[in-house]
């Protein structure tokens, strides 16, 4: 799990509210999943936009093995303000993947 001192840096207010609804023992791994998704989203959008994002630039909602990532202020060049993808657990950790649709914003 990710050190709890970093949770407020990684998570938005909405994500923290979702964490607070989980049992205490599940929160550390939930933050790790959120972090994994945010890193995947950052890397995917950067190839199109070149935008440097802070953790609070995107709200992540994870539903089982799928997720949505909603940009608070989408960077120019991003064709959609909400991106979806999948997350899974592997023996090495978590893996998140997404595809950004083609198009012009």
What does this molecule look like?
There is one protein chain. The chain has a single domain (4-98), classed as Alpha-Beta Complex (Ribosomal Protein L22, Chain A). It contains 3 helices and 4 strands. The protein has helices spanning 7-10, 13-20, 24-49, and strands at residues 58-63, 66-71, 82-90, 93-98. The protein has a 4-stranded antiparallel β-sheet with strand order 1-2-3-4, covered by helices on one side. It starts with 6 loop residues before the first helix and ends in a 7-residue tail after the last strand.
Task: Specify the CATH architecture.
Answer: Alpha-Beta Complex
The end-to-end span amounts to: 36 Å
Contiguous low-pLDDT stretches (5 residues minimum) are: none
**Residues in helix, %:** 25-40%
Radius of gyration: 14 Å
What's the order of the H and E elements?
A: HHHEEEE
- Our count of domains comes out at 1
User: How are the strands of the biggest sheet laid out side by side?
Assistant: 1-2-3-4
Keywords:
single chain; 105 residues; alpha+beta; Ribosomal Protein L22, Chain A
Annotate the secondary structure layout.
Layout: H1 7-10, H2 13-20, H3 24-49, E1 58-63, E2 66-71, E3 82-90, E4 93-98
In short:
With 105 residues, the protein is an alpha+beta fold.
């Amino acid at each position: 799990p990710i050190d709890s001192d970093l949770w407020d840096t990684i998570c938005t207010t909405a994500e923290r509210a979702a964490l607070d609804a989980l049992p205490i023992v599940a929160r550390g791994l939930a933050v790790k999943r959120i972090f994994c998704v945010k890193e995947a989203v950052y890397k995917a959008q950067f190839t199109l936009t070149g935008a440097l994002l802070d953790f609070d630039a995107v709200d992540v909602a994870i539903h089982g093995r799928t997720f949505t990532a909603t940009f608070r202020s989408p960077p120019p060049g991003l064709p959609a303000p909400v991106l979806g993808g999948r997350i899974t657990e592997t023996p090495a950790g978590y893996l998140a993947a997404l595809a950004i649709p083609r198009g012009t914003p």
